[in-house]
Specification:
Elements: H1 5-18, E1 25-30, H2 38-42, E2 46-51, E3 56-60, H3 66-84, H4 91-113
Antiparallel strand pairs: 1-2, 2-3
Helix pairs in contact: 1-3
Length: 114
């Protein structure tokens, strides 16, 4: 599965918007430690991405293809940068927070009714 040009362009624009430059990223590739036999042991598809100014480190092995992992690592870097540096909550964080509140409310209801 190749990443579409539209997604790559939106990722590039988001990086530019946040002020993250490609020169500030240190990218290394490591061989995977998953199932897959000889192919997995020979190829270096795991991406280690480090943003030098903030020392944020991302390790990505979501896919079997290096280019996809490079894309996913940059997306994870954006999320982590927004969360830690800019204190912006992602959609995923907001959903998790809502679920925690619901569980807390339910547990209070259940403990008070007993």
């Amino acid at each position: 599965m190749a990443i579409s040009d539209k997604k790559l362009e939106s990722l590039r624009l988001k990086l530019q918007e946040l002020g993250i430059k490609e020169e500030d990223l240190e990218e290394t590739f490591v061989s995977g430690a998953k199932k897959g036999g000889q192919k997995a042991n020979k190829s270096s598809v795991v991406v280690n991405l480090k943003h030098k100014p903030t020392s944020i480190v991302i390790k990505c092995a979501q896919s079997r293809e290096r280019e996809e992992n490079r894309f996913f690592a940059r997306r994870l870097l954006i999320e982590k940068y927004e969360k830690e540096i800019l204190n912006i909550k992602s959609v995923h964080d907001i959903k998790l927070e809502r679920i925690r509140k619901q569980k807390k409310r339910r547990s209070r209801r259940n403990s008070s009714s007993q």
